[in-house]
Amino acid sequence: MAPRAVVLLSGGMDSATALAIALQEGFEVTALSVDYGQRHRKELDSARKVAKHFGVRDHRVVSLDLTAIGGSALTDKKIPVPEQRRLEEIGQAIPATYVPARNTILLGYALGLAEATGAKAIYIAANQIDYSGYPDCRPEFYKAFQEVARLGTQRGVEGDIIEIRTPLLAMSKADIVRKGEELGVPWALTWSCYQGEEKACGVCDACQLRLKGFREAGVKDPLPYARRPRVTNA
What we know:
This protein is of the alpha/beta class. It contains 7 helices and 5 strands, in the order βαβαβαβααβαα.
């Protein structure tokens, strides 16, 4: 029987690639998607489609209301999503789209699920190369959370440590596109935009980083965009 892994699947290009990597590495996958009140809840539909595409039989969508915490443009519609930022600005400071402690909360849930289901690993598609500057996307955070898994679970203290895997951490967005192409990631089913409209906005940080990755990889992004970044960002 194949070992099990929990994969945090948001529905974006990164998490879809992380899912494909987990499957390539021989894991039976439990995909975990979280409705936390994000304005781009459209990504949950993408997560369902991506999971179905890869034949994931155990896909769990859970609700954790982070709007009660607030403090983020993704959970509070009164806070505007930054748009048309220059690429060189993105990642230099923590933006308004940072959701307080989101990855800590999601990993905590995933850790409980992994312990209960006997999963050997948790995959999360964190990236610190072409990213928005979130503090919970840095290697120091994942090293520390690995200690949480070791010290804060029954399995951990008994020596059966659940591994926190971050296969995309040191990859550029172009590298992620290339890896996804290799593994057959269905880009048309994914969603990255922070706005949950019919078309991707094209000018939020997530859209700009996605477009940059496809451009640099020489691959056409199949998603329709309402707008495109300014030429100065090219």
